[in-house]
Amino acid sequence: MDLKNKYMKNSNISVGLDIGTTKIVAMVGTKNEFNKVEILGVGKSKSLGVHRGVVNNITQTIQSINQAIEEAKSLSGEVIDEVVVGIAGQHIRSLQHSDYITRPNPQEVISIDDVERLIQQVYKLVMLPGEEIIHVLPQEYKVDGQAEIKEPIGMYGGRLEANFHVVVGQVSSIKNIGRCVKSAGLNMGNITLEPLASSEAVLSQEEKEAGVALIDIGGGTTDLAIFKDGIIRHTAVIPFGGNVITEDIKEGCSIIEKQAELLKIKFGSSWPGENRDSEIVSIPGLRGREPKEISLKTLSKIINARVVEIIEQVFLEIKNYGHDDQKKKLIGGVVITGGGSQLKHLKQLVEYITGMDTRIGYPSEHLAGDTGKAETSPILATAVGLLMNALDHHKEIVSQDEDKFEDIQGETDSEQSNKSEDINPMVDRRKTILDRWVEKFKEFLDNA
Question: How many domains does the chain have?
Answer without folding.
Answer: 1
